[in-house]
């Protein structure tokens, strides 16, 4: 059932991009990421890694969070099938567009709301499958302190 909902979401997103251009879904995706972070904060999930864990625990998806440096970590999400929850199934023609229009703004909106005192860089490494035999999606999150003006 969850996968059917995600497939519908992907079809909807593709149509939004085709009709409204890539900026329309960017603002919506960013807002949805922020909204999810606000919901998590209300139920006292206020650490980024805990929030990410919660996303994948609910979907019953295997994941691993690896620390790279002090303020940088990688999230690797593993699937039984060729499907990522945000980016969708294997679709190399739309991969970069969906990543730029949906995945990046969604995760950046989520991160910015979870910890607004930081800014984030280089997030999504791969949120849609670009290789037909691939079953892993990954992204790197790097937290940088905001500079005082």
Keywords, separated by commas or semicolons:
single chain; 149 residues; alpha+beta; Muramoyl-pentapeptide Carboxypeptidase, domain 2; five-stranded antiparallel sheet; two-stranded antiparallel sheet; 4 helices; globular
Describe the structure.
The structure is a single chain. Helices cover 47% and strands 24% of the residues. It has a single domain, classed as Muramoyl-pentapeptide Carboxypeptidase, domain 2 (2-Layer Sandwich), CATH 3.30.1380.20. The longest helix is centred in the N-terminal third of the chain and has 20 residues, at 23-42. By secondary structure, the chain is of the alpha+beta class. Strands 1, 2, 5, 6 and 7 form a five-stranded antiparallel sheet that branches. Strands 3-4 form a two-stranded antiparallel ribbon. Helix 2 packs parallel to helix 4. The chain is built from four helices and seven strands, in the order H-H-H-E-E-E-E-H-E-E-E. It starts with a helix and ends with a strand.
Task: Give the secondary structure arrangement, pairings included.
Elements: H1 2-20, H2 23-42, H3 48-58, E1 62-69, E2 72-78, E3 83-84, E4 88-89, H4 95-114, E5 118-121, E6 124-126, E7 136-145
Helix pairs in contact: 2-4
| Overall morphology | globular
Secondary-structure class: alpha+beta
The CATH architecture assignment turns out to be 2-Layer Sandwich
The major pleated sheet works out as: 5 strands, antiparallel
Which parts are unreliable, with pLDDT below 50 for 5 consecutive residues or more? none
Radius of gyration of CA atoms, rounded to a whole number: 15 Å
Terminal CA distance reads: 48 Å
N to C succession of SSEs: HHHEEEEHEEE
Strand content: 15-25%
Helix content: 40-55%
> What is the typical, i.e. mean, pLDDT?
78
* CATH class group: Alpha Beta
Number of helices: 4
Number of strands: 7
CATH superfamily: Trafficking protein particle complex subunit 3
- What is the CATH fold-level name? Muramoyl-pentapeptide Carboxypeptidase, domain 2
- How many structural domains in the coordinates? 1
């Amino acid at each position: 059932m969850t996968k059917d909902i995600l497939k519908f979401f992907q079809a909807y997103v593709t149509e939004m991009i085709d009709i409204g251009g890539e900026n329309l879904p960017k603002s919506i995706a960013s807002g949805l990421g922020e909204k999810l972070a606000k919901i998590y904060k209300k139920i006292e999930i206020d650490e980024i890694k805990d929030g990410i864990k919660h996303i994948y625990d609910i979907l019953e998806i295997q994941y691993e969070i690896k620390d790279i440096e002090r303020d940088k970590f990688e999230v690797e999400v593993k699937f039984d099938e060729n499907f990522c929850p945000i980016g969708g199934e294997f679709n190399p023609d739309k991969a970069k567009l969906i990543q730029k229009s949906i995945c990046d703004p969604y995760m950046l909106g989520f991160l910015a709301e979870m910890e607004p005192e930081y800014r984030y860089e280089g997030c999504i490494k791969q949120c849609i499958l670009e290789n037909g035999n691939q079953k892993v999606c990954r992204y790197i999150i790097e937290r940088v302190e905001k500079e005082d003006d």
